[in-house]
Design goal:
The complex is a heterodimer of chains A (about 100) and B (about 675). Chain A has about 100 residues and is mainly α. Chain A is built from 3 helices and no strands. Chain B has about 675 residues and is mostly helical. In chain B, the strands form 3 sheets. A two-stranded antiparallel sheet of chain B has the order 1-2. The chains are: A mainly alpha (about 100), B mainly alpha (about 675).
Amino acid sequence: MIPIELYIGLSVVIFSIGLYGFMTQRNGVRMLMCVELMLNSANINLVAFSSYHGNLTGQVFVLYVIALAAAEAVVGFAILMSIFRTKDMIDLDKINILRW
Amino acid sequence: MAVGDYALLIPLLPALAFVLTFFLGKKLPNGGAIIPIVAIATSFVISLLITLGLLQNPEQVINQSVTWFAMLNLGILVDPLAAVMLTMVTFVSLLIHIYSTGYMSHDRAQYRYFAVTSLFTASMLSLIISDNILQLFVSWELVGLCSYLLIGFWYQKPAAASAAKKAFLTTRIGDVMFLAGIVVLFSDLFRLYNGSIPEGVFILKFDEIFSQIPQLAAMSTPILGFQVNHLTLITLLFLGGAIGKSGQFPLHVWLPDAMEGPTTVSALIHAATMVTAGIYLVARTFPMFIAAPDSLMVVAYIGAFTAIFAATMGIVMNDMKRVLAYSTISQLGYMMLGLGLGAVIGAEAVGISMFHLINHAFFKALLFLCAGSVIHAVATHDMRQLGGVAKVMPITAATMIIGALALAGIGIPGTSIGFSGFFSKDAIIEAAFLFGENGGGWVLYALSIAAALLTSIYIFRLIFMTFFGKPRTAYGGHEAHASMTLPLSILAILSLVFGALTMERFNTFVSETFVNNFVHMDIPALAELGGYHLASHAGHEPLIILWMPVIVGIAGLLIAYLIYGLRVVNMDRLVSRTNPIYKLLYNRYYQNAILTNFLSIKVVYEGLAFAGRAVDTGFDWIVNWIGDVTIDTGDALRQLQTGVVQNYAMVVITGVSLLVILITVVMEVL
């Protein structure tokens, strides 16, 4: 059996990649992809602990998170689409017309 | 059902007419004038019937009261005093309303005019009919409001707007004194009951107040080192209210300016609905005045002084309406004097004073409406531009001359031949003589005779300058419409015969108000309380005294004729800015400069403005400081919002990391 530490290690690596990407990228699509990465790293954690404890609650929870992530992606990409149509670019640090 | 049961309708009908006219008047012809006319006519019929009933049986006083709240009530009281006032007010007001349909026919805001005059009449009627002093005060304020609305009727004119403001503020000074008087009276009565008032006793009701007079007279408080009798204090405060409303010195300044309204409004104010309120207040509380030491003397001297003071100014005015305005002030002075002479003739003072009030109402309404008729036709009220109007407007001229003769008081003493003003003014002057004869000093008599001479001069000056001689400028004109000449004729007939017909009857009728009516006051005992020595009033004056007022009246007529009719004296020398007396009079004793420009503008207004600025600066500083601090803080804080998602994410991550570290440390320590 693969020890739980490896699952956690994988999760940490993926989460870090996601966080790094989220912090450094300016492209909206990439940022959304990074957010997906972070969410899925959390999912790995949940599933790992679920099987470790023999408790199915964690796996059920993961289904919710996947559904949520799908919904989030729909909304997020829709917004990015409309930004692209009006501005011809999706650099999020230039989208600041609602700022003070 | 007796007619007395409808007494409540007398003020109610014009009030209802006000509402109807205000909302429906625009859609009706003539601004809905028919509504107030019908309402006031009905009120007049009811009042007249009640008065006639009271004449036959003075015991039939109408007094209905309901509890208002606590120890205060609302109610109506129609005793002889109120009844004659009600009849006069409804009658004069009715004629003025009829006249107005002609006079105001060119005005687009007619409905507003008729609505407010109707409310004016209603408030005056409710003032008269009140059976307690608080309700009287409420109506009193309503009268003030209506006068404001009507004087400023043509509010587009700055002069009218400021005259309305002046009238309102000046009478307000009096109103505040009146209110203070009521407060003092209330607290004194409350103390007399030791704070526990039995059920069903309304302490501000007139009969209740009168029954407490001896106890009130016994109370006194030191003010500025003097022991002031409470009754004197209360009555003088009431007198302050009366001075403001009735245009007595020194609060008379609003009355001449009140000319800015339509002439019919002047007639209403001067004859029926406003200035008589002050006289009525003093007459209504007469038992208190006569039991209060010194009060009646103050009333008498203020009245006599006002009579002569206003008459001297009336002589030099060139504006027809202003002459009449000063004449009103002067005649109100006579009425005050008449009431003040209650110090020597007792309750009869109420009779002669009210008699003069009623006569004055008729002839002054007549004079004003005639003046209005002239103004309406020739469109100027500067007498220097007129002359010879009698040829163009014979009816107006004839009625106005009758009014003038009534004002000057022409008649034959000892008989019942004479114009109405003759009987009442004579009675007041005779009382002043009686006062002197009983050791009260001759000042009042001298002032009243001199004022009578001046009265005659100024009114005939007006007549000769306006109606006789050659026209001084080209003016077009025509006799007024029948709706205007009819009220003039009715008033002229009353000015001719009312005095002669009713004199004896009227005086006894009204004088009995307090003696043998809804209250039974012992006037001589009250006078004793006030320290006045009543004299028996018998007609034993020397013949010359009886003739004196008539002689000065005719003398005034002759003087005016010689100067303005025949022009025997070159007026240009008298009437010039280099003549100091003329200058003093023409500038109205500089009272405008002193009272308005100096006292009210410099002292009060500038003082208030300065204090206001000081307070404003302080408050402004605090308010601005709070505003500035809020804005600056917000300005600084909003810089945090960069709008870049990564920055927010960074903050979140830093926060979460710090939280994790913190929890770890805490767990370690625990």
